[in-house]
Amino acid sequence: MGNTLKKLGEAELEIMQVIWDGDNPVTSNYILKKLQGRRQWQLSTLMTSLARLADKGFISCDRSTGSNLYTFIITENEYKAGASRHFLEKLYNNSIQSMIATLYSDQAIKNDDIEELRNFLDRLEDER
Questions:
Q1: pLDDT tens, 101-118?
Q2: Taking 70 as the threshold, does the pLDDT of residue 2 lie above it?
Q3: What is the pLDDT of residue 4?
Q4: Domain 7-72 has CATH 1.10.10.10
Q5: H or E stretch including 71?
Q6: For residues 38 and 14, is the Cβ–Cβ distance under 8 A?
Q7: Going edge to edge, which strands form the sheet with 59-62?
């Protein structure tokens, strides 16, 4: 994935979440229906966003069936990993400890969260 992965805007991320969660491939009407209640979009607005996502390399569009079928190219985990690395780098100078300390001191995470994180890290270590 590297540093060349483009950032998703909020609306683009919502579209990608529908595509990631759907049975691939999905149609634009499927996406529009899934976005109801969150976005009051016309089909033309969605089509513009889908074209932008294709240009950014996140999705591909198969037009061979008579209806556009959209499939993700970048998986959800690939995007999350890249976005997380970028976030950590920009806000916390690549220091997970600094991020956790900030969240803890601001009471964004509680002692239960710390215990859960400790258990998770212990499990990761045991798996190695």
A1: 888 888 888 889 889 988
A2: no
A3: 58
A4: yes
A5: strand 69-72
A6: yes
A7: 26-27, 69-72, 59-62
